[in-house]
Specification:
Largest sheet: 6 strands, parallel
Oligomer: single chain
Number of strands: 6
Length: 237
């Protein structure tokens, strides 16, 4: 009987990806970015947590832990979020009047309008109120189900504002089909990482944040395509 050999690959301790051909540490910032004007809350669908081709992990590696909070659940409220106390506290704290759900719908205002209104409010009240950003991390099918479930059960805080990315917002920074290892409904439908990077860069008024968050994602996509090409059968000369 032939002895079985191990085919396991060495994993990078920092990015948790294969060192050979998969490590993206060279694209990560030297130190995690700490956001000053906003905090990101991510409600992640359980199915998304199990997917290998997710975009969110690359944001997690770029942002400080006090800039990003993730909870895994199909909707807000319930026992699944009981342990995510920081998530619930930031979501329900009425002192955070600037709570934005980044999700498209008819009554949502554009990102550009939301940022303008927020800045005008700060000037009027002479305050520096931060923005809490709520994003749904899932496939578009599951994201629709999550939003509908939260609406039906009235689980969204009453002070929450709905904000969406318009074509004008997308033209400023985003490039189409960036995260093309998954198929969105259209070029206007971005991955969670792309959406978060674009919104945060606008709120923080720092376009370099967008490029910093996209750099490891772009490298991973490049590596993925390279790997797929290497799997194709070679054509005889």
């Amino acid at each position: 009987m032939m002895e079985r050999t191990s085919t396991s690959r060495s994993i990078c301790p920092r990015c948790q990806r294969p060192i050979q051909g998969g490590c993206i540490c060279g694209a990560l910032p030297d130190a995690p970015l700490r956001l000053r004007q906003c905090h990101c809350l991510i409600l992640q669908h359980p199915h998304e947590r199990r997917r290998k081709n997710r975009s969110l992990p690359f944001v997690e590696m770029c942002l400080s832990t006090d800039s990003l909070t993730i909870a895994v659940a199909r909707r807000l409220g319930g026992t699944q979020l009981d342990e995510a106390s920081h998530f619930q506290e930031r979501l329900t704290d009425s002192s955070h009047t600037n709570l934005w759900l980044i999700y498209p719908c008819e009554e949502a205002v554009s990102l550009e309008q939301a940022v303008t209104d927020w800045k005008d409010e700060q000037l009027l009240q002479e305050t520096r109120a931060t923005v809490v950003l709520l994003l749904l991390d899932a496939t578009w099918k599951f994201a629709k189900e999550m939003d509908a479930s939260n609406r039906t059960r009235n689980l969204y805080p009453s002070h929450m504002k709905r904000v969406q990315l318009t074509e004008n917002d997308l033209q400023t920074l985003s490039k189409p089909k960036r995260f093309n290892i998954r198929t969105p409904p259209s070029e206007q439908h971005l991955s969670t990482a792309e959406t978060l990077a674009l919104v945060v860069s606008k709120v923080e008024n720092d376009e370099t944040i967008y490029e910093t968050l996209m750099k490891p994602l772009d490298l991973m996509v490049e590596q993925w395509h390279s790997f797929q090409e290497s799997k194709k059968p070679q054509t005889p000369a």
